[in-house]
C-alpha cells in the first residue's frame, strides 16, 4: 500500500474515538442488565452494532477492498464470514442435518467478495436473517447450562463463543476501516 488515508474521526471529546460517548448508540443509561443471560445478550448486541458501525458510510468498492494485502480480508468479507458463522452456530443447536454454506467451501466468504451494491445488500440481509434464526433457536433455551445439539454444547458456551467471534472480527474491522478511509476505531 502506497497511499494511506489520513486518520480522522467525528468525535470531538476524545479525538481518537469513533464517536463521542454521548452519540454512541451502544452506550445505555442506567444500570447494567440483570442476570447472566441478559448481560451476554447485551454484549452480543453491542458487538453486532459495532460491526455495522464500522461498515456505515462506505460504498460497495470500499467494503469489498482488501485493505491489508496479502490478506483476503475485507469488511464485506467479514460480514459474509459472520453470516456463515451464525449459520454454523444454528447448526450446532439442532440435531438435524446441517444447513449448507451460503457462500461456498472454505474461505469463499472472503474470496468471493465482489464490489457490487447488490452483493453488499444481500450480505447484510443474509446476516440479519441468520442472526434472527440463531437468536430464535436460542430463545427456546434460556437455561445457560442446558446442552444442545449432537455435540452437547452448553448455551453459555455458545453465547460466549458468539461474543468472542464478533469481538475478534470487530478488531479486524477497526484496522480495515482505517485503511479504507482513515476512520479510527473505538
Automatic annotation (TrEMBL):
Residues 1-34 are annotated as: Disordered. It comes from Streptomyces goshikiensis. InterPro entries: DinB/YfiT-like (IPR034660), MST-like (IPR007061). It comes from the Bacteria. Pfam families: MST. This is DinB family protein.
Amino acid at each position: 500500500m502506497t497511499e494511506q488515508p489520513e486518520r480522522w474521526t467525528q468525535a470531538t471529546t476524545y479525538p481518537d474515538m469513533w464517536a463521542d460517548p454521548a452519540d454512541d448508540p451502544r452506550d445505555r443509561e442506567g444500570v447494567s442488565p440483570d442476570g447472566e443471560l441478559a448481560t451476554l445478550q447485551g454484549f452480543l448486541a453491542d458487538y453486532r452494532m459495532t460491526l455495522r458501525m464500522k461498515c456505515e458510510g462506505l460504498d460497495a468498492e470500499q467494503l469489498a477492498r482488501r485493505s491489508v494485502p496479502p490478506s483476503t480480508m475485507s469488511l464485506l468479507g467479514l460480514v459474509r464470514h459472520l453470516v456463515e458463522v451464525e449459520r454454523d452456530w444454528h447448526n450446532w443447536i439442532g440435531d438435524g442435518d446441517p444447513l449448507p454454506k451460503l457462500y461456498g467451501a472454505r474461505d469463499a466468504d472472503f474470496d468471493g467478495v465482489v464490489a457490487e451494491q447488490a452483493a453488499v445488500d444481500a450480505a447484510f440481509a443474509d446476516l440479519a436473517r441468520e442472526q434472527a434464526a440463531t437468536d430464535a433457536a436460542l430463545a427456546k433455551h434460556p437455561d445457560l447450562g442446558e446442552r444442545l445439539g449432537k455435540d452437547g454444547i452448553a448455551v453459555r458456551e455458545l453465547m460466549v463463543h458468539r461474543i468472542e467471534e464478533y469481538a475478534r472480527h470487530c478488531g479486524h474491522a477497526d484496522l480495515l476501516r482505517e485503511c479504507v478511509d482513515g476512520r479510527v476505531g473505538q
